[in-house]
Prior knowledge:
The chain is an alpha+beta fold. It has helices at residues 23-45, 52-70, 75-88, 96-108, 118-121, 131-145, 147-158, 164-178, 188-204, 237-249, 273-279, 317-320; strands at residues 185-186, 218-219, 222-223, 225-231, 285-292, 301-308.
Amino acid sequence: MARLALAAFCIVALAATSSAMTFTEYGIGMACTAYNSACWYENLKQFPNTNAKGFMKCTNSCNFQKEQALKQSGEDRQKMSFTQGVTQYGMKDLPSEFASNCNSHLKSGSATTSDDESDVLNDQHQEYPFRAFAYCIMKTVRSKYGDIAIEAVRNEKTHSLKHWKQTLLDRDNEFRALHGSPPFKRVTDLDNAAQKWADKNAAECNMYHSKNDDAGRQWRGKGTGESISSGGGSDEKENAAYLASNGWYEEYALYPFPGGIKDANDPRFQHVGHFTQTVWKGTEYVGYGYAYNPKCSPYTHYIAARYSPAGNMAGGFQENVVPRQ
Length: 325
């Protein structure tokens, strides 16, 4: 059962003039939006080599430095604190080309730049401190991965948020396709069952599996499969969805291909059971639930998934869990 930590993701208002924030606060926020979008694409959206731990490391970096900077009195001190913190710590948590390309803009804190990444950052072409740095970050993402990366940032981070259930379904199906498995179909009954279990975990501040013979695990007269995930931080369903699906699939690295395993009694199963259920060819239907309880510590959010027909059945691993194609 993978416990995945999730930190607050920096989303700022689109117009500094519409709130009480100063342009320095707005600029620091936009810098974090760009930085965290790069962190998200590099580690969560990247496919198929995802890195949940890498995401948590870099997304915490900018958010923490932002918090520290905004505690300072005066805009000059805020800029200095943010610059020093992100230069010293944050840029080390992104691939090296981001620091090489963008550190000079970070240190200057300038709004002046010949680049134009206003559309992806959705900043209405305003001028603000650290705009050159924010645009440089997005330009570096574009140069590394092309327009497909920029569109992903626009569609899931800066212009709109992709629904967390759709994120889970799409990402699980991407992983299934790698192994020749047909796509899952989401059904309301399984969504409802998964939601009840996520709610129960959150209410008890404890992530644990239901029993196979529980009444809530039955659908159409048969038992269902189950995966669960938990993490800490703020109520960010979209990031939690990626962390859960990616974390389940990252168990792929531990699966003993080509021989595989025979059943859940194999001692190796406890380390790969989420992965095998994700790609199990015979599973057709899925449902997802998400619950958040800020009173829980250190894990505040809980995700549950239910599958039918259930995977991880004895004697079925060779047929249903195959290497990447």
